[in-house]
Fold each of these.
Amino acid sequence: MIKNNIEEFNINECPLCKKKHILKVDVYRDILPNNLNKDVRVPEFKRIPVTVFCPKTKLRFNMEIYIQEDKFSTLIKIKRVV
């Protein structure tokens, strides 16, 4: 089953304007059914490079975000939301 949700990432200090920003990302996951009593979920963090748009300076910069996944929830697609 494929589900999507919007995840927010805080950028504590923008390298261009030195202010805080919030990056919103629409994450699509393939969710496998599991038995919560038997199956153990071991989270892994996947490093993903993204291009971020600074609203103050109107310039772009690159950074990496970490998104959690496990064997029951794998990433399919990531889309940036402005």
Amino acid sequence: MAAIRKKLVVVGDGACGKTCLLIVFSKDEFPEVYVPTVFENYVADIEVDSKQVELALWDTAGQEDYDRLRPLSYPDTDVILIPDSLENIPEKWVPEVKHFCPSVPIILVANKKDLRNDENVRNELARMKQEPVKTEDGRAMAVRIGAYDYLECSAKTKDGVRELSFLGPRARPVGQLSALRSPAGRLPPSRRVKGIVGRESRRVCSRSQER
């Protein structure tokens, strides 16, 4: 039986953890060096609900310089991931996604979960009179923007990354019951979920790179 093909696109501010998340997702390894992304395409073969799924993972650049190129990534998208830089999500990312992908479900992802209890990070935020984003704040934002679900994870520790591997392919189109609004608060997990069984990555060059 041929694999079901799904396309997942991740968008968000620069340096918010998009690339690290997808590299861990597809290669099961955490990159130690930050490399700014223009467009990168990864492929993960997974099994969800006893079905083979070929999940294409599209990474995008969040900088304003690429605002005109980024829409090239949106056609035929099945699900959108938005890391939770809460300041820009309702003003920039959600309007952009809903303009180009009006019926595509959004999953709000809290990256860098491991830093929430990091003493150095908490002290630095305290000096700026800030604090780490709380789970309830993230979920409230997810409900506000009409997201399908809210998930917290850490690419560095891999906590929560596996859950994304089946949550993404199972996300339902806008207008159907979301995990945030289901009676149990989250749709029941797959009874049978296997991890990535094959990995590859491909570079997708922007037009500006080809010149």
Amino acid sequence: MEYVMLVNPDEAYEYFLGTLSNRTRIKILNELLSGEKNVSELTAAIGV
């Protein structure tokens, strides 16, 4: 059985960022300052 929760994009970001430590959030924000990145690029850049 597969469960799918539908949320709007703003809620999705809140859930996603809520699971990360403050240090990881800061790393993500620093990486995004240089431009858009996809999830693979972000995880490689911050070492997750």
